[in-house]
């Protein structure tokens, strides 16, 4: 439920409502707008049935929220959230470009990619050290050694590091080396991992699950937020459909839909979204045109030799081309790269 305060409710009136809610052991989330304050209420609200909140000073009305997610929803927090990572802001006027190999394979592969991306004006370097592979016989990642290589790339280039956690143990390691933790599609409903990411307070990229509805995806964000971490970036990465030509079906419509339902920034991953490098640039352009706050793209110095996701990885030349194209689209929308 949301309590909408009157346009010029005083600080004391707002504090009075907050105090009453807290005395009933309810969670309170205050969002100050330019016109009025709204107070989100979380918890078992049955006791409120007996409490005439509408009659309290400064209260305008109560609005029942039908969505199961509250903290992630716009009703609780009408203004769009921006997330600060180092000197970078995600969800603001800039379209953020995140790029790098699917997996960290060795020092020269990662460092050469990092140096190239830095030259291209990229600010976030992605690379998996723990890889959630579909087959147990596929390359599983360098684990902590991979994290150390990522940290070395950050040291040398200043790029901010994004890497995936596949378990609570890997999350602890990642917190020592990276700037943003990614929760992958396969773990979108690993609720203990989500809660741990919530307690870690690191910015989180939360990918949409392979077969997750938008509501399930926002509920996954709610798990993280419910532990006190509001630094979440949602990432559309394609969903399973009957189509097999592409690896996944990139659900472009989820981008404007989620931006309407939630205040959290939304980015798109056209590499996993399509599985084919030739489709990455057109879908990057489309995602930005649809309102994405950024894109995450797989790049490899030699995709043919990549240990994972080579067919969907761009080489340096095609990435350079993509940067030119997406800068134009962002410009049309009045956003910068
Ligand atoms: C990845 O980013 O390399 C990855 C495994 O992504 P997803 O979880 O979307 O499959
Ligand atoms: Mn990958």
- What letter string, H or E per element, gives the SSE order? EHEEEEEEHEHEHEHEHEHEHHEH
User: Using only CA atoms, what is the Rg?
Assistant: 21 Å
CATH class descriptor of the largest domain: Alpha Beta
Helix content: 25-40%
Strand order of the largest sheet: 13-12-11-10-9-8-7-14
Principal-axes geometry comes out as elongated
Shape-level CATH architecture of the largest domain:
Alpha-Beta Barrel
Describe this protein's structure.
The strands form three sheets. Strands 13-12-11-10-9-8-7-14 form an eight-stranded parallel beta sheet. The mean pLDDT is 96. 46% of the residues are buried. The chain has ten helices and 14 strands. The longest helix has 17 residues, at 316-332. The chain starts with a strand and ends in a 5-residue tail after the last helix. 34% of the residues lie in helices and 18% in strands. It has helices spanning 11-23, 107-119, 144-157, 168-177, 191-200, 214-225, 254-261, 270-274, 277-289, 316-332; strands at residues 2-5, 27-32, 37-42, 59-63, 83-85, 88-90, 96-100, 124-126, 160-165, 180-183, 204-207, 232-236, 266-268, 294-298. The protein has 337 residues and is of the alpha/beta class. The protein binds phosphoenolpyruvate and manganese (II) ion (MN). Manganese (II) ion binds at residues 102, 272, 298, 308-309.
Keywords:
about 325 residues; alpha/beta; TIM Barrel; 2 domains
Describe what is shown at a glance.
With 337 residues, the protein is of the alpha/beta class. It folds into 2 domains: 2-63, Alpha-Beta Plaits, CATH 3.30.70; 83-332, TIM Barrel. It has helices at residues 11-23, 107-119, 144-157, 168-177, 191-200, 214-225, 254-261, 270-274, 277-289, 316-332; strands spanning 2-5, 27-32, 37-42, 59-63, 83-85, 88-90, 96-100, 124-126, 160-165, 180-183, 204-207, 232-236, 266-268, 294-298.
